[in-house]
């Protein structure tokens, strides 16, 4: 099971930030411009049981973009996220960590139909 550690940065000068990343040796992962169009389907019980416990069950379709257009082969990923654990590092910076399990699926629609049949799950599109 992987752990996702997330921080949010306030970036007032995007170009300066990109130059700094380049100086640090950061590179885009994958083909294209590094941008990906995401379509997320979130599943929960009618009572919101997963959300109430800080959990998330999602099917995400990721489509690489090139020059502002969708291009490339979409990737469909089924993800389950455990509740968030919040923390503060030694410098006082806040962060959050949560364990997540991901599996790539070939038929996102079929997987979604399976979840809709469990406990009359509601579907939220974001």
Characterise the protein shown here.
By secondary structure, the chain is α+β, with helices and mostly antiparallel strands. The protein is built from 3 helices and 8 strands. Strands 1, 2, 3, 4, 5, 6, 7 and 8 form an 8-stranded antiparallel sheet that branches. A hairpin with a 5-residue loop joins strand 6 (85-88) and strand 7 (94-105). It is flat and about 50 Å long. The two termini are 25 Å apart. 2% of the residues are buried. The mean pLDDT is 80.
Q: Uncertain runs with pLDDT below 50, 5 residues or more?
A: none
Oligomer: single chain
Average of per-residue pLDDT values: 80
Distance between the termini: 25 Å
Total beta strand runs: 8
Instruction: Work out the radius of gyration.
Output: 18 Å
Strand proportion, as a percent range, falls in: 35-45%
Shape: flat
State the secondary-structure class: alpha+beta
- Reading the helices and strands in chain order gives EHEHEEEEEHE
Largest sheet: 8 strands, antiparallel
Tally of individual helices: 3
Residue share in helices? 10-25%
Short description, anyone?
The chain has 3 helices and 8 strands, in the order βαβαβββββαβ. With 126 residues, the protein is of the alpha+beta class.
